[in-house]
């Protein structure tokens, strides 16, 4: 099985070797995502699964059960990546889901209910700033108005989706009508908790959804050579202390473990960003996460207070806009216990933990009882060419998922 | 004459009204610069000047003198702008030079030597980070190797120039061979010294040329949601104190007048600049200017020391690269005195001062005795849509220049 995992890893990542210094780039609704999805479909068909696509581009690979109308046992993840990201985020989940089905087939298992492996289209937010579009559609949570959101080149989500052959208005028809008994996703941890606690896998209790702010600082652009230091309204100089503030304040709220809350100034856009012009305007993107929603709102307020202080000290105007404010998601407790049991049955030790990152499973939880398995990844590194999970750790995670699927789909 | 100034201002800026909220954008080697140059050529021809273009795209509008071989009296400026810049930077100089000739013609003046109005192509650095390309070529200071420098879209200077019909390798042939008696440029001050000293115009002693640094901070990109605060190598958090440091240190060196030295972090590029990824790499552009070269090197060293301190405090690597290190230029003392006299002869009061910004005149000083007249501009604002010089102030400056040209070109 480990050779199959290795082959799938390369094939789904469209490479001959996983050693890629510039990482993997398969943005939402790109040709790269399409090609990876084709690999998935081909492998699913070769396993004898019935492959179909819903109106939002999600692929459903179905293993028919003895009872065709019974609630479905579902599992899956995604195949798109961030720009220059890693080869395991999403892919490890697709491999484990497909591998779990393959294993059960090889055992001669006959599922009582249908088992479906789902590939959710366009999970990552790096192209449009909007994440999990496919699973939003499948779980009936999609708001079609996001179709007008643009990428850096001015292409909208609607245009990008339609360039791949879909019809944006039909995305809402992807809302899955059949009963689903449970949905489980496997994903790399993107952190170091499992490793530090010397466990084999993690089972997620809650998913920390972000509060995201756009902070706009308006100073005054003028000539770098002719504007005396004491007459400037430099928007970048004004905002520099805010970058330090967000990091320090989050660090103190986070506590010694550094995990209660995370907050990041992750984007910055300067106008005009020209060597001989004092920055007249700066836009910052701030990403705040915690499974404790009250902590997110506490730091949000402190950031806003700091902006007022900066406005008073520098001659600038600052506005803050809330781009995203999603409450954290508690996953199903029954699924959590059954996942821990499935792991223990394989002699593996699991860690109950939270997820700092959003995943498709948080949408599916609105549809059906859902769970999330984490597997370790090297140094917790993710969204980076150096992202790595060992074949052994992927296989261990797959064992947990396989046991879970067997239990769920048994009479 | 004031109506002519107003008409030329609009025509050279390619607008019906000077009230343009988004300013003026005629980048180096753009179609906009071409169109503005065509307006200039047409007006020069209508005045009866002989219009020619050198191999670097500089336009020479010549008024023949009684002695055709006598050293030339030259004046001029440029017609390109920064992105969303003002309508007076460069244009005020072209109008004054052409208006000076027009005035002398209307007086029936017959120049003893040739008078040339020069338009230098591509003075601004905002497209390529390289300034005064045309005057570098005309003064024999052009290094053809800069042809490979790219703009933000990856177009090189050579490609941009050749797209306008020039041959890059021929740019060196623009090195002007005839003797030039003097060259004078008129420009908006881009500062507030003239106004604060209640004078009518300025005469520049020295031009402060920049030291420009590229500072590259390498941290580690990772997921904003899953990387605990105490395990981050956030390049933006590391560099934020450097932005404050440059501003504070320059302010203290600059003194109470804020003018001895200016230093600006004017550009910032984040990699990946993506909402859910911790900034792994940041590049800063730092622009440092003073007519006192030792002060520029003092703050450069302090910035480098601060980088070492930041490297120790944060887990990042910082490298600094010197992009530009040009000594300041002292303009010709004889021309300075004659410009002051020319102003006083018109009943105008002049201020001897320095220039914080570079201009084409600094290249021409290497070729011939050169001088720079400043006229006031509102609030010192420049490289900004709000840049403004009154028609009256342009006309006063033109009087100084006209008197100077008359004196220079008399027997």
Key terms:
33% helix, homodimer, 411 residues, nine-stranded mixed beta sheet, 2 domains, Aminopeptidase, 13 strands, Alpha-Beta Plaits, alpha/beta
Describe the protein.
The structure is a homodimer of 411-residue chains. Chain A is α/β, with parallel strands linked by helices and 411 residues long. Chain A has 2 domains: 2-208 and 328-408, Aminopeptidase; 210-323, 2-Layer Sandwich (Alpha-Beta Plaits). The first copy, chain A, has 11 helices and 13 strands. The first copy, chain A, has helices at residues 2-12, 31-46, 91-107, 133-138, 157-163, 193-196, 235-254, 293-313, 333-345, 361-364, 391-408; strands at 50-53, 59-63, 72-78, 115-120, 180-188, 201-207, 210-218, 262-271, 281-289, 317-325, 329-330, 350-355, 370-375. In chain A, strands 1, 2, 3, 4, 5, 6, 11, 12 and 13 form a 9-stranded mixed beta sheet that branches. Chain A has a 4-stranded antiparallel beta sheet with strand order 8-9-7-10, with helices on one face. In chain A, helix 1 (2-12) runs antiparallel to helix 3 (91-107), helix 3 packs across helix 11 and helix 7 (235-254) packs antiparallel against helix 8. Chain A is elongated. The two termini of chain A are 27 Å apart. The model of chain A has no long low-confidence stretch (mean pLDDT 95). At the A-B interface, helix 7, strand 8 and strand 9 of A face helix 7, strand 8 and strand 9 of B.
Task: Determine the N-to-C terminus distance of chain A.
Answer: 27 Å
- Which oligomeric state applies? homodimer
User: What is the number of beta strands of chain A?
Assistant: 13
CATH topology of the largest domain in chain A: Aminopeptidase
**Poorly predicted spans of chain A:** none
State the name of the first-level CATH class of the largest domain in chain A: Alpha Beta
Most extensive interface between two protein chains, with residue counts: A-B, 74 and 74 residues
Count of helices of chain A?
Answer: 11
CATH homologous superfamily assignment of the largest domain in chain A: Zn peptidases
> Which band does the percent of strand residues of chain A land in?
15-25%
Q: Per CATH, which architecture of the largest domain in chain A?
A: 3-Layer(aba) Sandwich
What is the succession of H and E elements of chain A? HHEEEHEHHEHEEHEEHEEHEHEH
What's the pLDDT, averaged over the residues of chain A?
95
């Amino acid at each position: 099985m480990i050779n199959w995992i290795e082959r799938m890893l390369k094939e789904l990542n469209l490479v001959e070797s996983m050693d890629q210094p510039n990482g993997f780039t398969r943005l939402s609704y790109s040709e790269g995502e399409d090609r990876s999805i084709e690999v998935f479909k081909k492998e699913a068909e070769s396993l004898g699964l019935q492959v179909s696509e819903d109106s939002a581009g999600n692929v459903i690979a179905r293993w028919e059960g003895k009872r065709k109308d019974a609630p479905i046992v579902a599992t899956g993840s995604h195949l798109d990546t961030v720009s220059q990201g890693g080869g395991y985020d999403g892919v490890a989940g697709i491999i484990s889901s497909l591998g779990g089905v393959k294993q059960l087939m090889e055992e001669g298992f006959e599922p009582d209910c249908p088992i479906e492996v789902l590939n959710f289209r366009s999970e990552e937010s790096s192209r449009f700033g909007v994440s999990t579009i496919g699973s939003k559609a499948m779980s009936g949570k999609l708001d079609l108005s996001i179709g007008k959101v643009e990428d850096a080149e001015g292409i909208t989500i609607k245009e990008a989706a339609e360039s791949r052959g879909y019809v944006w208005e039909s995305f809402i028809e992807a809302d899955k009508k059949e009963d689903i008994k449970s949905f489980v996703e496997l994903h790399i941890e993107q952190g170091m908790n499992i490793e530090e606690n010397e466990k084999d896998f993690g089972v997620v209790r809650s998913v920390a959804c972000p509060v995201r702010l756009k902070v706009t600082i308006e100073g005054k652009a003028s000539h770098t050579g002719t504007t005396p230091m004491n007459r400037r309204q430099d928007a970048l100089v004004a905002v520099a202390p805010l970058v330090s503030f967000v990091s320090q304040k989050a660090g103190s709220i986070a506590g010694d473990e550094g995990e209660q809350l995370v907050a990041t100034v992750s984007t910055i856009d300067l106008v005009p960003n020209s060597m001989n012009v004092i920055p007249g305007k700066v836009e910052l993107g701030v990403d705040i996460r915690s499974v404790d929603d009250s902590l997110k709102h506490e730091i949000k307020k402190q950031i806003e207070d700091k902006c007022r202080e900066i406005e008073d000290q520098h001659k600038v105007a600052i506005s803050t806009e809330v781009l995203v404010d999603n409450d954290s998601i508690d996953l199903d407790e029954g699924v959590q216990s059954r996942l821990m049991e499935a792991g223990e049955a394989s002699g593996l030790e699991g860690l109950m933990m939270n997820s700092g990152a959003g995943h498709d499973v948080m949408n599916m939880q609105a549809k059906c009882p859902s769970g999330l398995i984490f597997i370790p990844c090297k140094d917790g590194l993710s969204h980076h060419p150096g992202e790595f999970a060992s074949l052994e750790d992927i296989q261990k995670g797959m064992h947990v998922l396989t046991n879970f699927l067997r239990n769920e789909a048994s009479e």
